[in-house]
Design goal:
The protein is mainly α. About 95% of the residues lie in helices and about 0% in strands.
Length: about 110
């Protein structure tokens, strides 16, 4: 009876493989067909025209997006520049304050 169980498992595995292979072959055929159609020489004239219009639309969308994000990039650049300037001034003030304290303490030590 154990060999019947083993045979059933083998048959189920073969059936699962075939069931998985059918959609894989269908999808593979569709991908190959799309690849064959996307080569420029195989496209019908109306698909070439549609692809050209889609390329033009894509270029217009990219141009519009460049105009939309330009103010945001300018604001971010301005804020980053101001932040860097303030950070530099703050660091300079801290260093200047430390130097000033060092000079005062060294003057006090020299007087005594």
């Amino acid at each position: 009876m154990a060999w019947i169980r083993d045979l059933a498992i083998i048959l189920l595995a073969i059936e699962a493989f075939i069931v998985a292979l059918v959609p894989l072959l269908i999808v593979g055929g569709l991908v190959y067909g799309m690849w064959w159609l996307l080569r420029r020489e195989n496209l019908p004239a109306w698909l070439k025209m549609a692809q050209a219009y889609l390329d033009l639309a894509c270029a217009y969308v990219k141009l519009a997006m460049a105009h939309v994000i330009r103010p945001f990039i300018w604001i971010q650049t301005t804020l980053a520049t101001a932040h860097a300037w303030l950070e530099t001034l703050t660091q300079f003030a801290k260093d200047f304050g430390r130097r000033d304290v060092r000079h005062r303490t060294s003057d006090v030590r020299r007087r005594t």
